[in-house]
Amino acid sequence: MSNNRNFKNLLELNLAILFIATSGPLGRYIDMPVPVIIGFRALLAAVLLFAFCKWRNISFMIANKDRGVVLLSGVLMGVHWVTYFYALQLSNVAIGMLSLFTFPVITTILEPLLLKTSFQKVQLLLAVLVLIGIYFLVPDFDVQNTNTQAVGFGVFSAICYSLRNILMKNKVSNYNGSVLMWYQVVIIGVLSLPLIWIMDSSGITRQWPAVLALALLTTAVGHTLFLRSFRKFTVTTASIMSCIQPIYGIILGIFFLHEIPSFYTIIGGLLILSSVVIESIRSVKEK
């Protein structure tokens, strides 16, 4: 029974990662200003999550002491989304997604400091393996190169994402993941409203199916499942395991955008995938 439960937890986490991975191809495909994409994504996701929570009779109550943390996590999530999508638009699915995946290394360093958890050397070693994999995939560093700029946006996005995940770690045990995600997308949507009004948002009339997929699969379903995984795994473990996300995204990019990865992309992807498999096996044995 315990093995079945562990397998179910791992399956749910990987399903969450697959849905979140659709953000790469969708971020490249949708042709609108980044803040407008993020604004519509957040507002649509807010409607979908609100309907889901009402259907399941889930309470929206948040204790006063937790409201500041939820607000900050929403702001961090918004900055993460915006900078990540700029990374995608400046480069391609592979570079955009893989630059974001410095966040397991960042999480490995920050989690013990901020949550006062024990430091495990094996997680640092796996994070280093991920970093080596990413090294094979990023271009030569030249500040005039848009790919290099994309990596910069991706790394900053990773810092925001890591901090948001750590902030949420102590909240998912007290609140439903869908409710926490709803508050975050509402915050992002409200902050984005002026930008939607100012910038050109006319593209939504012909690209609403892709934006809806981004709101439903990537955001409402994917991120909610990922938040739920924090009940079963540490933030560091979930982060390292989620490094399979670029592989999913690159595969989706091949099929839908015809972006073929290079030989070095394949090598880096194999290194990243190896760390995910090792961490998955290790986490099951610990459970």
Automatic annotation (TrEMBL):
The keyword Transmembrane applies. Keywords: Membrane, Transmembrane, Transmembrane helix. The keyword Membrane applies. Gene3D superfamilies: 1.10.3730.20. The chain crosses the membrane at residues 12-30, 36-56, 68-87, 93-115, 122-138, 150-167, 179-198, 210-227, 239-257, 263-281. Residues 15-137, 151-278 form the EamA domain. InterPro entries: EamA_dom, EmrE-like. It comes from the Bacteria. This is DMT family transporter. It comes from Aquimarina hainanensis. The lineage of its organism: Bacteria, Pseudomonadati, Bacteroidota, Flavobacteriia, Flavobacteriales.
